[in-house]
Amino acid sequence: MKIDVKKTAQLANLTLSPDEETEFDKQLNDIVGYIEKLNTVDTSNVEPTAQITGLKNRTRNDGFTDDTLSQEEALSGGKKTYNGLFVVDKLVDTT
Questions:
Q1: Tens of pLDDT along 72-81?
Q2: Cα separation of 35 and 31, whole Å?
């Protein structure tokens, strides 16, 4: 499998010099070559695993008590609200 560095750079919105294209072409194709090599290893007798430490997540009940704020109380500190929600200024300019 060959990685198209120019297309990848375009998708990532990166501008690469010809030297960088050459360097990244080699690096990316070395990585893909290594992954292809790993794909040849017989793993048919290996059980799938997500983690190997044996640790388990500690969780707690998400129950809440009567001392929580009502929606009205929570919204009372906001500068602007609409329809039971906080209204905030636009954070990202898309122009």
A1: 999 998 889 9
A2: 6
Q: Which domain holds residue 23?
A: 5-39
Residue 32 in domain:
yes
Chain segment 12-51, per-residue pLDDT in tens: 999 999 999 999 999 999 999 999 999 999 999 988 888 7
The amino acid at residue 66 is D
Between vectors from CA 39 to CA 37 and to CA 45, what angle results, nearest 5°?
Answer: 125
Q: How far apart (Å, rounded) are the C-alpha atoms in residues 7 and 33?
A: 19
Number of domains comprising the chain: 1
Residue 54 has which token pair? 């044996």
Q: Which residue has the tokens 């990532």?
A: 12
Q: Which residues, in sequence order, are CB contacts of 21 under 8 Å at separation 6+?
A: 5, 6, 9
Helices (H) and strands (E) in the chain, counts: 3, 2
